[in-house]
Amino acid sequence: MRRPAPVSPPVALTVAGSDSGGGAGIQADVKTMEAHGVFGTSVLTAVTAQNTRGVASSYTLPTSEIEAQFDAVLDDFTLGAVKTGMLATREVIETVTDRLDGVDAPLVVDPVMVATSGDRLLSADAESAYEELVAAATLVTPNTDEAAVLSGVDVTDRESAGEAAERLVEMGAKAALVKGGHLDGARVVDTLVVSDRLRAGRAPRDDDAPDAPGTPDAPTGLATHRFDHPRVDTDATHGSGCALSSAIAARLARGESLVEAVDGGTDFLHRAVRYGLDVGEGPGAVHHLVELRERAARQETVEAVASVVEEFVARDVSLLVPEVGMNVVGATPYAESPDETAAVEGRITRTFSGVHPNRGVRLGASSHVARFLLAAREVDPSRRFAVNCRFADDVEAALSALDGPVAEFDRAAEPDDSATEEGNTMQWGARRAFESTEGTPVAVVDRGAVGKERIVKLLAADADTLVERTLTLLDAVEAER
Hints:
By secondary structure, the chain is α/β, with parallel strands linked by helices. The protein is built from 14 helices and 19 strands. The chain has 2 domains: about 280 residues, Ribokinase (UDP-N-acetylmuramoyl-L-alanine:D-glutamate ligase, 3-Layer(aba) Sandwich), CATH 3.40.1190; about 180 residues, L-fuculose-1-phosphate Aldolase (3-Layer(aba) Sandwich), CATH 3.40.225. The chain is about 35% helix and about 20% strand. The strands form 4 sheets. A 7-stranded mixed β-sheet has the order 15-12-11-16-19-18-17. Strands 3-2-1-4-5-6 form a 6-stranded mixed β-sheet, with helices on both faces. Strand 9 and strand 10 form a beta hairpin. Helix 1 packs across helix 7, helix 3 packs parallel to helix 4 and helix 10 runs parallel beside helix 14. It is elongated and about 85 Å long. It starts with 10 loop residues before the first strand and ends with a helix.
């Protein structure tokens, strides 16, 4: 018989409705909490019949059943954080407010009033009942429509979002995050206002200062932070509000400060929306486990890049190695930064006996090729692997042997404000190359500049295809000699 080895994760509670479609509500909350390493408990307030297309019906549980669930959870668990979602009626809001009064844990209030699909989830006479719950909140997380209802401020831009957040803090909340997803613009800006009352009774932390995560301002008596992310062109945002508030609650339960939790939560949601789940007949849902899946894919990606390197060494790809050295880069399916790509540390170089990787494969080992690959993934997220090769007349002639379009970019056409950093050049060049051809190019030519070697980068969706394309190019170059 084996000896048990239990673990003791922090515990969080979600008080919300059920989504039979699994993308929002209690289901989204528990998935998100567990993905953040937090044990999720629940108090169910309502049952909805809904899916990715909308809400068909909703049934609010009797308050006696809601209270019984509270009794069961509070009698057995020490809570690190609580979040509320769909509360549906005045009676439920008042019951929940009363039962949370004695709970010594951060409270995140997501004032769910309307579903992403546009269906109303809160009765009109219950809106004013939120005032007492908002006053008890550590953080309240309304979207712009909900913020307008609660604060009386019509939210149309980042300035009015700040005004609404300040008004919510004046109502008693220790902090307010007005989400910017419903505002127009190429970027989503979420506005967090934190009251000095949140920091009372303890020494100031680094993240209370103006240089905390996000872009901070400093109204009198308040600390304001803005979190800026590029907008994702998708309608698959079902469950986004639930996932964000649950992520923040989970991070608070883990001991993060409020600003740290909001910073990490908004980053998480951006990735969860970009790599949304294509399920159901509607637009789909956010990916609650996206960060967990990304971490799980890292070792597999490292091994895939290592296998490509082994093939290149075995075949001797010396004829394709540029003066700066060759690198093979692989991105996890959810990669957003070079740290989430695998590459050869120190690159692959020519030797008297062939080619040899300077060191092993690790995450974050490439900047130049990794940034190019990430930029290519902005246009076609299925591209996960890339390699940089020598470019000269013989290689240019051999490119016709590849099984797809070849694109190129001219550094002379790069805007001055982009050319200040090599990483920016790679991003600009990838965008320009993709714009110049129909479909995803299999190779992108960079004709270089003064001090910049001419290079061609090959792209592929998987490691085997990258090897095949590289060796096809090598065969064609050898045939020209």
